[in-house]
TrEMBL record, chain A:
<protein>
    <recommendedName>
        <fullName>Septum site-determining protein MinD</fullName>
    </recommendedName>
</protein>
<feature type="binding site">
    <location>
        <begin position="11"/>
        <end position="18"/>
    </location>
    <ligand>
        <name>ATP</name>
    </ligand>
</feature>
<comment type="similarity">
    <text>Belongs to the ParA family. MinD subfamily.</text>
</comment>
<dbReference type="InterPro" id="IPR050625">
    <property type="entry name" value="ParA/MinD_ATPase"/>
</dbReference>
<dbReference type="InterPro" id="IPR025501">
    <property type="entry name" value="MinD_FleN"/>
</dbReference>
<dbReference type="GO" id="GO:0009898">
    <property type="term" value="C:cytoplasmic side of plasma membrane"/>
</dbReference>
<dbReference type="InterPro" id="IPR010223">
    <property type="entry name" value="MinD"/>
</dbReference>
<feature type="domain" description="AAA">
    <location>
        <begin position="3"/>
        <end position="150"/>
    </location>
</feature>
<keyword id="KW-0717">Septation</keyword>
TrEMBL record, chain B:
<keyword id="KW-0717">Septation</keyword>
<comment type="subunit">
    <text>Interacts with MinD and FtsZ.</text>
</comment>
<dbReference type="InterPro" id="IPR005526">
    <property type="entry name" value="Septum_form_inhib_MinC_C"/>
</dbReference>
<feature type="domain" description="Septum formation inhibitor MinC N-terminal">
    <location>
        <begin position="20"/>
        <end position="90"/>
    </location>
</feature>
<dbReference type="InterPro" id="IPR007874">
    <property type="entry name" value="MinC_N"/>
</dbReference>
<dbReference type="InterPro" id="IPR036145">
    <property type="entry name" value="MinC_C_sf"/>
</dbReference>
<dbReference type="InterPro" id="IPR013033">
    <property type="entry name" value="MinC"/>
</dbReference>
<protein>
    <recommendedName>
        <fullName>Probable septum site-determining protein MinC</fullName>
    </recommendedName>
</protein>
<dbReference type="Pfam" id="PF05209">
    <property type="entry name" value="MinC_N"/>
</dbReference>
Length: 272, 275
């Protein structure tokens, strides 16, 4: 049974694409056949983060418009042979996405893949709505600051009203998970950033993981390798654990800076 | 070069402001429906009724509805009635029904002839205990067209059968998220879960929130001044009852995050913590 998971946030720059890349690489390295789709038409980024931008020939829009076959557009990852990328078009805009086209592509992908990760654009317009419309689960990426939390809350509202599952009825709702990124335990402790508890209190959804702010994330982006596959870092470990939870594992949550800051910083202080 | 979006000019030089615009407009007015010609008893009861809620009727736009009584009312009686109402500071502006002579008299008094419109529940007025309800709400949906409608049916409307309508309360058991709006337009609204900042709750009756209340709540949207808002933990952006509101700024630290009720007292919104 394949799962369509949308990675969304509302606000831009919080780490959707980084998280999409890390989650899809993590799921693939756990042995699942995984594809990650870039829904941010016109602002192609995912293929760069995944390090396959030089191999893009056909894209998502070509497939939707019938100019290319799905297999022609899918790019196999060089590091993991069960990971594929469906890049988007740099020259079109979001109006090129159609609901029927997205549904057709997703149905075709469901035949072949265990996990289909949809990397949503920022905002609440067409691209974001179509990225979430056919999702079974959602990963809501949030930074610990008020505007990001409010936008995530708005997305959760849309997820529970403007999606195929919501329109079908009550029982079969989208399962939403919170992924808190760019978390700085020190600044949270000083009260400069919201605490994990504050964010959870507002959003009221299960926590998938807390990714610490880390220079390793930027370094990974620059070399085009998903964080999880690059150097060993606190962020990579946090993503690995989040992916394990997404995959159904019941891991205890370790949050830096919350409750036992001394121990945590000693444990993780050396890496990254 | 600047683009003037408002007026559609793209030259950006010497932009012109449109001197006028035609806009559709709905207007809520009172209709004074006469069942007989006005006599001394009529004026006595009218004065009595208006005194009960003086503020409600001051400067209220009023039309006179003669559809049931045009045969009994003379142009002179109409003139006297309009003068009486205007003395009482009611803004009489229209006549509904009436024969040619009455309409001519009305035109002489500066009244327009209106057709159409329908009754609506009256906001803000005391429930009338009298048998005869002298007023109703009138909605003018388009500019009046003379002779646009055939003469009204001569037989009087059957007396309305009193109906007991159960309130339609609404319960929401999911979080109300930023940007969402929940409306209970015929009863109370109960939310079991948090209400986020940027979410809006509307209810004709009371609003209950069992969870952190960070959004906006509008109780008594049809003018029910007895409606209340109950919050398990108050952190609202805005609270309103029957149109009177308070924003987050004016809520003191002593009520924030407390279990409170909000109600109207002497046209003031009171936020009272429990216990």
């Amino acid at each position: 049974m394949s799962k369509v998971i949308v990675v969304t946030s509302g606000k831009g720059g919080v780490g959707k694409t980084t998280s999409s890349a890390a989650i899809s690489a993590g799921l693939a390295s756990r042995g699942h056949r995984t594809v990650v789709i870039d829904f941010d038409v016109g602002l192609r980024n995912l293929d760069m983060i995944m390090g396959c931008e030089r191999r893009v020939v056909f894209d998502f829009i070509n497939v939707i418009q019938g100019d290319a076959k799905l297999n022609q557009a899918l790019i196999r990852d060089r590091r993991l042979d069960n990971l594929y990328v469906l890049p988007t078009s740099q020259t079109r805009d979001k109006d090129a996405l159609t609901q029927e086209g997205v549904e057709k592509v997703l149905n075709e992908l469901r035949e072949e893949f265990d996990y289909i990760i949809c990397d949503s654009p920022a905002g609440i317009e067409r691209g974001a709505q179509l990225a979430m419309y056919y999702a079974d689960e959602a990963v809501v990426v949030t930074n610990p600051e008020v505007s990001s939390v409010r936008d995530s809350d708005r997305m959760l509202g849309l997820l529970s009203s403007k999606t195929a599952r919501a329109e079908r009825g009550e029982e079969d709702q989208i399962k939403s998970h919170l992924l808190l990124t760019r978390f700085d335990p020190k600044r949270s402790g000083d009260g400069e950033m919201m605490s994990v508890e504050d964010v959870l209190e507002i959003l009221a959804i299960p926590l998938l993981g807390v990714i610490p702010e880390s220079p390793a994330v930027l370094r990974a982006s620059n070399v085009g390798v998903p964080v999880i596959l690059n150097e060993k870092s606190r962020a990579a470990t946090a993503y690995e654990e989040a992916v394990a939870r997404l995959d159904g594992e019941d891991l205890p949550m370790k949050i830096e800076g919350e409750k036992v800051p001394g121990l945590m910083s000693r444990l993780f202080g050396r890496s990254a | 070069m600047q683009t003037d979006v408002a007026s559609g000019n793209i030259d950006g030089v010497g932009t012109t402001l449109k001197p006028f615009q035609f806009r559709g407009r709905f207007l809520t007015a009172l209709a004074l429906r006469l069942s007989t010609a006005p006599d001394a008893r009529f004026y006595e009861m009218l004065a009595d009724r208006l005194e009960k809620t003086p503020n409600f009727f001051t400067d209220a736009p009023v039309i006179i509805d003669l559809e049931q009584s045009q045969a009994a009312v003379t142009p002179e009686a109409l003139t006297e009635l309009v003068a009486d109402l205007r003395r009482r500071e009611l803004a009489v502006f229209g006549l509904q029904g009436g024969d040619e002579a009455l309409r001519a008299a009305a035109a002489g008094l500066g009244l327009i002839s209106v057709t159409g419109g329908r009754d609506a529940p009256l906001r803000g007025a005391l429930p009338s205990s009298e048998q005869k309800r002298p007023q109703r709400v009138f909605q003018q949906e388009r500019p009046p067209m003379p002779e646009a409608q055939p003469a009204p049916a001569p037989e009087p409307e059957p007396a309305p059968i009193p109906q007991r309508v159960a309130p339609e309360n609404k319960i929401v058991t999911m979080p109300v998220r930023s940007g969402q709006t929940v409306i209970a337009d015929k009863g109370d609204l109960t939310v079991v879960g948090p209400v986020s900042s940027g979410a809006e709750l509307f209810a004709a009756g009371n609003i209950h929130v069992y969870g952190r209340m960070r959004g906006r709540a509008f109780a008594g949207i049809d003018g029910d001044e007895n409606a209340r808002i109950f919050c398990q933990s108050l952190d609202a952006e805005l609270l309103a009852i029957a149109g009177l509101y308070r924003t987050s700024d004016s809520l003191g630290a002593d009520v924030r995050h407390k279990m409170v009720q909000i109600y109207l007292e002497d046209e003031r919104l009171i936020v009272a913590p429990f216990g």
